C-alpha cells in the first residue's frame, strides 16, 4: 500500500545514515575508506545490519519524520512487511565486494554542467495560479515555529 | 576520548561525521590540542593562553582567567552568480516576491535539477583561497526536513564528500584588541542551495513565503573550533567577508543576507580536556554583534558554572537580541536532528580535473593575507596595512598609485587620511572618485620635489577628488607653484616687517611667538605659495638680525 511504499523510501535513507554514523566513531579518514576499515577489522558492520534483530525500524518514528499519519493498527501491519523488504534487500550484503573500489554514488552518465545564463520561465503565472493559498505576492502558509 | 571530542563539538550529524572524516593529523585529544593549531604570538601546549584584550571589560578578562571559550563558526555565503544553483532562474536581490521561480526551484513534480558550472568554479575558488584540499570527486545529498520555505521537502547539499576540506585562514587581530597573527582551521567548504524567505505576519496565525531565494547557490564554510574570544571570531568573520569579496564570488553583505554567520560556543574550565556543552547563536547581523553576543554568552555560561549550575547549559539554539543585547533561547534541541541524508539521485558526481583546478589556482587574485604581508614588507605599519588591505578596491587603487612610482608612505597617508575622510563624508567608494591613481602619484611627486607645498596639495586634492582634472593643469590654472626663490621671499618678509613695526618691537622685546604672525602675513601675501621652511629660515634671520 501507499503508506508502506512511502515508509520504505524514508527507511532507505535512514539506513544509509546509520551505517555512516557507526563508522564515524572509528575516526576513518574518508568515507571511501569506511568499507576498507571494516575489512581490516573483520567487522562488516553493513553485513550485520540485515540480521541485526535489535535494530528493527521504529515505524512510528519513521512515520513521524516522513509526516505520514498511521494508526497503531497500520503500524502493526506495516512492521513485518517492512522488515521483509529490508531483509530482501539484505541479499546484497552477501556479494563479495572486497576487491571493488567503493564508489561515492551510483554512477550516472553525464556530469553535465549548465552555463550560468539566466532565463525567465515563461509560465510563472500558471505556477502561481496553481497555488491554492497564493495571495497576490506571497504564498500564505500556516505559522510553523520549529524546524524539524 | 575521541568520541567525547566528537560528541561535544557539534550537535548535528553531518558535522559529527565531518570532524571525524577530516581531522587527518590529529592523533591526540589532550586539552591543548585545539589551541596548538593557532600560530602566532601565543605559546601552545602547557601554558594557559593569555586572554586577548577585550572591549575594556574587566569582568570578561577575569572570567577568561578561569575559563576557556571554544568557538566555531558556520558561514553561509550567497554566491553572486547570474542564475540559481540548479535552474536558470535569475539570481537577483530585491525582485518582486515569487517572480524568479520555475518548476525546478518550486519543486514541482517531474522537474530535475541541473548544476551550474559557475557554482563549481566558485566552490573551487573559495576552497583554494582557504588553503583546502579539494575532492576531485564529490557528490550531492538530500538533507530532508519539512518547512514552509523549503519547496522540495529537502535541501540539495553535500553531506559526507564536500568539494573542499582541511584548510586554514590567517588573520591579523586589530591593534586595538591586542594585535598579533592567528591561524584558524577550516573543516570544510561545500555547495548547497538556499531556502526561500519566510515572513511571519503580525497577526500571528499565518506566515508568508517568498521563493525567489529558494535554489540560490550557497557555499557553506565550517571552521574548526579554533577561536577563543569574540574578537577572534569577529576577525574570522571579517576575513571571510574580505576573501569572498576579493575573489568576487559574493558581495558578502551581512545586511542583505549574502553572508550569514552562526556561532557555536562552549566554555570549559582552563585545563579541562573535555569540551563543555555547546550552544548555537543565530541572528547575528554584524561582526560587532557577533563579538558582543560571544562575550555575553561566555559571561552567561561562566556565571552558571560559578554557581554550580553548569548542567543548566544545554545544547540549544539561542538568538541574539540586538535591542536587549543578550542571547535568548529559541528552542531546545531535543536530540540530534535526523535529516535522513542520502545521495541525490538526480545529480551526477561533481568531477574536477587537476588541470581545471590548476587553471583556477593560477587565476586567483592576490588574497588579503598575501597583500598584508607584501605591504608589511614595503615598510608600512600594521595599522596602515590593515586599512589598505581591507577593501579590495582601495588596495587596487593603492597598488596603482605606487605602481606609478609614488612614495609608499605618502600614498598610504593620503589614502588613509584625506581621501578616506572625503569618501566617508560624501558616502562614496574609492571607485567613484574622479582623482585617478596617476594623478595622485603626480600630486605626491609635485609635493616631494617642492613644486607645490603640502598645504596647497591638500587644497587641490579636494577639487581633484570631486571634479577630476590633472595636477599639472591645476597648478598652471591657479598659479600654485611654490615660491622657493629666497630673494623673493626676502622681499616679502621685509615688506611685512616694515608694515608691522609694533609687532616687530614686541618680538624684539621677547615675544618670540610672534614669529608665527609674521609668517602668516607672508603666507597671505604670497597666497600660500611661499615655501614654509625657507620662509621661516629667512624670517628668523631677519627678525633676529636687526637686533
TrEMBL record, chain A:
Stated EC number for the protein is 6.3.5.-
What do the Gene Ontology cellular component annotations say?
chloroplast; glutamyl-tRNA(Gln) amidotransferase complex; mitochondrion
Report which reactions are catalysed by this protein: L-glutamyl-tRNA(Gln) + L-glutamine + ATP + H2O = L-glutaminyl-tRNA(Gln) + L-glutamate + ADP + phosphate + H(+)
Q: Where in the cell is it found?
A: Mitochondrion; Plastid, Chloroplast
Enzyme class comes to ligase
Q: Which domain of life is it from?
A: Eukaryota
Q: Which GO terms describe its biological process?
A: glutaminyl-tRNAGln biosynthesis via transamidation; mitochondrial translation; regulation of translational fidelity
Q: Which GO terms describe its molecular function?
A: ATP binding; glutaminyl-tRNA synthase (glutamine-hydrolyzing) activity
Q: Which PROSITE patterns match?
A: PROKAR_LIPOPROTEIN
Q: Which UniProt keywords apply?
A: ATP-binding, Chloroplast, Ligase, Mitochondrion, Nucleotide-binding, Plastid, Protein biosynthesis
Q: Provide the assembly information.
A: Subunit of the heterotrimeric GatCAB amidotransferase (AdT) complex, composed of A, B and C subunits.
What the protein does? Allows the formation of correctly charged Gln-tRNA(Gln) through the transamidation of misacylated Glu-tRNA(Gln) in chloroplasts and mitochondria. The reaction takes place in the presence of glutamine and ATP through an activated gamma-phospho-Glu-tRNA(Gln).
Q: Which NCBIfam families match?
A: gatC
What family is it from? Answer: Belongs to the GatC family.
Q: What is this protein called?
A: Glutamyl-tRNA(Gln) amidotransferase subunit C, chloroplastic/mitochondrial
Organism lineage string? Eukaryota, Viridiplantae, Streptophyta, Embryophyta, Tracheophyta
Which gene specifies this protein's sequence?
LOC108848714
UniProtKB/TrEMBL annotation, chain B:
InterPro entries referenced in this protein's UniProt entry, alphabetically = Asn/Gln-tRNA_amidoTrfase_suB/E, Asn/Gln-tRNA_Trfase_suB/E_cat, Asn/Gln_amidotransferase, Asn/Gln_tRNA_amidoTrase-B-like, GatB, GatB_Yqey_C_2, Gln-tRNA_amidoTrfase_suB_CS, Gln_synth/guanido_kin_cat_dom
Gene Ontology MF: a single term:
ATP binding
Q: What is its EC number?
A: 6.3.5.-
Q: Which UniProt keywords apply?
A: ATP-binding, Chloroplast, Ligase, Mitochondrion, Nucleotide-binding, Plastid, Protein biosynthesis
Which top EC class applies here? Answer: ligase
The record's section on SUPFAM superfamilies has: GatB/YqeY motif (SSF89095), Glutamine synthetase/guanido kinase (SSF55931)
Q: List, alphabetically, the Gene3D superfamilies matched.
A: 1.10.10.410
Q: Which GO terms describe its cellular component?
A: chloroplast; glutamyl-tRNA(Gln) amidotransferase complex; mitochondrion
- Where does the record place it? Mitochondrion; Plastid, Chloroplast
Record's catalysed reaction(s): L-aspartyl-tRNA(Asn) + L-glutamine + ATP + H2O = L-asparaginyl-tRNA(Asn) + L-glutamate + ADP + phosphate + 2 H(+); L-glutamyl-tRNA(Gln) + L-glutamine + ATP + H2O = L-glutaminyl-tRNA(Gln) + L-glutamate + ADP + phosphate + H(+)
SMART domains xref list: GatB_Yqey (SM00845)
- Give all residue intervals belonging to the Asn/Gln amidotransferase domain: 396-543
Q: What is its main location?
A: mitochondrion
Q: How does it assemble?
A: Subunit of the heterotrimeric GatCAB amidotransferase (AdT) complex, composed of A, B and C subunits.
**Similarity-based family:** Belongs to the GatB/GatE family. GatB subfamily.
Q: What name goes with this protein?
A: Glutamyl-tRNA(Gln) amidotransferase subunit B, chloroplastic/mitochondrial
Amino acid at each position: 500500500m501507499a503508506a508502506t511504499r512511502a515508509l520504505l523510501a524514508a527507511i532507505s535513507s535512514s539506513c544509509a545514515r546509520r551505517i555512516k554514523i557507526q563508522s564515524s566513531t572509528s575516526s576513518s579518514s574518508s568515507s571511501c575508506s569506511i568499507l576498507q576499515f571494516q575489512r581490516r577489522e573483520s567487522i562488516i558492520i553493513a553485513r550485520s545490519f540485515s540480521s541485526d534483530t535489535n535494530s528493527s525500524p521504529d515505524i512510528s518514528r519513521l512515520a513521524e519524520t516522513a509526516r505520514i499519519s498511521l494508526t497503531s493498527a497500520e503500524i502493526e501491519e506495516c512492521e513485518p512487511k517492512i522488515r521483509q523488504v529490508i531483509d530482501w534487500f539484505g541479499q546484497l550484503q552477501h556479494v563479495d565486494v572486497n576487491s571493488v573500489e567503493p564508489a561515492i554514488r551510483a554512477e550516472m552518465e553525464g556530469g553535465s554542467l549548465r552555463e550560468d545564463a539566466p532565463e525567465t520561465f515563461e509560465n510563472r503565472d500558471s505556477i502561481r495560479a496553481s497555488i491554492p493559498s497564493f495571495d497576490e505576492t506571497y504564498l500564505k502558509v500556516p505559522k510553523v515555529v520549529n524546524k524539524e | 576520548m575521541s568520541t567525547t571530542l566528537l560528541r561535544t563539538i557539534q550537535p548535528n550529524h553531518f558535522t559529527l561525521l565531518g570532524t571525524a572524516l577530516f581531522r587527518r593529523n590529529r592523533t591526540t585529544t589532550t586539552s591543548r590540542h585545539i589551541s596548538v593549531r593557532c600560530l602566532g604570538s601565543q605559546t601552545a601546549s602547557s601554558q594557559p593562553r593569555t586572554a586577548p584584550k577585550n572591549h575594556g571589560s574587566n569582568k570578561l578578562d577575569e572570567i577568561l582567567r578561569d575559563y576557556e571559550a571554544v568557538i566555531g563558526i558556520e558561514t553561509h555565503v550567497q554566491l553572486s552568480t547570474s542564475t540559481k544553483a540548479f535552474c536558470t532562474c535569475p539570481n537577483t536581490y530585491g525582485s518582486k516576491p515569487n517572480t524568479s521561480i520555475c518548476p525546478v526551484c518550486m519543486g514541482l513534480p517531474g522537474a530535475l535539477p541541473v548544476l551550474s558550472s559557475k557554482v563549481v568554479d566558485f566552490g573551487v575558488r573559495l576552497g583554494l583561497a582557504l588553503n583546502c584540499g579539494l575532492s576531485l570527486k564529490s557528490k550531492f545529498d538530500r538533507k530532508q526536513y519539512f518547512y514552509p520555505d523549503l519547496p522540495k521537502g529537502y535541501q540539495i547539499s553535500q553531506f559526507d564528500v564536500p568539494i573542499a576540506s582541511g584548510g586554514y585562514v590567517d588573520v591579523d587581530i586589530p591593534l586595538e584588541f591586542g594585535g598579533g597573527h592567528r591561524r584558524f582551521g577550516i573543516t570544510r567548504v561545500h555547495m548547497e542551495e538556499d531556502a526561500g524567505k519566510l515572513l511571519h505576519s503580525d497577526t500571528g496565525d499565518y506566515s508568508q513565503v517568498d521563493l525567489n531565494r529558494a535554489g540560490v547557490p550557497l557555499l557553506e564554510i565550517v571552521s574548526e573550533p579554533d577561536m577563543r574570544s569574540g574578537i577572534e571570531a569577529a576577525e574570522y568573520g571579517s576575513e571571510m567577508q574580505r576573501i569572498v569579496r576579493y575573489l568576487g564570488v559574493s558581495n558578502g553583505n551581512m545586511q542583505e543576507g549574502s553572508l550569514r554567520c552562526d556561532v557555536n560556543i562552549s566554555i570549559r574550565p582552563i585545563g579541562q580536556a573535555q569540551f563543555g556543552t555547546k550552544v548555537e547563536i543565530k541572528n547575528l547581523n554584524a561582526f560587532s554583534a557577533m563579538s558582543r553576543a560571544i562575550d555575553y554568552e561566555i559571561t552567561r555560561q561562566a556565571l552558571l558554572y560559578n554557581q554550580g549550575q553548569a548542567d543548566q547549559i544545554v545544547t540549544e539554539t539561542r538568538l541574539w537580541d540586538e535591542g536587549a543585547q543578550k542571547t535568548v533561547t529559541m528552542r531546545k534541541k531535543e536530540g540530534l536532528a535526523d535529516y535522513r541524508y542520502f545521495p541525490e539521485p538526480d545529480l551526477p558526481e561533481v568531477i574536477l580535473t587537476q588541470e581545471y583546478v590548476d587553471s583556477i589556482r593560477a587565476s586567483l587574485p592576490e588574497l588579503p593575507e598575501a597583500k598584508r604581508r607584501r605591504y608589511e614588507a614595503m615598510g608600512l605599519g600594521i595599522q596602515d596595512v590593515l586599512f589598505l588591505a581591507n577593501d579590495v578596491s582601495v588596495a587596487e587603487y593603492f597598488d596603482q598609485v605606487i605602481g606609478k612610482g609614488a612614495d609608499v608612505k605618502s600614498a598610504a597617508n593620503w589614502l588613509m587620511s584625506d581621501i578616506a575622510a572625503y569618501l566617508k563624508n560624501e558616502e562614496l567608494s574609492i571607485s567613484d572618485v574622479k582623482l585617478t591613481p596617476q594623478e595622485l602619484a603626480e600630486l605626491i611627486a609635485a609635493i616631494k620635489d617642492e613644486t607645490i607645498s603640502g598645504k596647497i596639495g591638500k587644497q587641490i586634492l579636494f577639487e581633484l577628488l570631486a571634479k577630476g582634472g590633472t595636477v599639472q593643469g591645476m597648478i598652471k590654472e591657479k598659479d600654485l607653484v611654490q615660491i622657493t626663490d629666497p630673494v623673493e621671499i626676502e622681499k616679502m618678509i621685509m615688506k611685512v616687517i616694515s608694515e608691522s613695526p609694533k609687532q616687530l618691537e614686541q618680538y624684539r622685546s621677547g615675544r618670540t611667538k610672534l614669529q608665527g604672525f609674521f609668517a602668516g602675513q607672508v603666507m597671505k601675501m604670497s597666497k600660500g605659495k611661499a615655501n614654509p621652511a625657507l620662509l621661516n629660515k629667512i624670517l628668523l634671520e631677519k627678525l633676529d638680525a636687526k637686533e
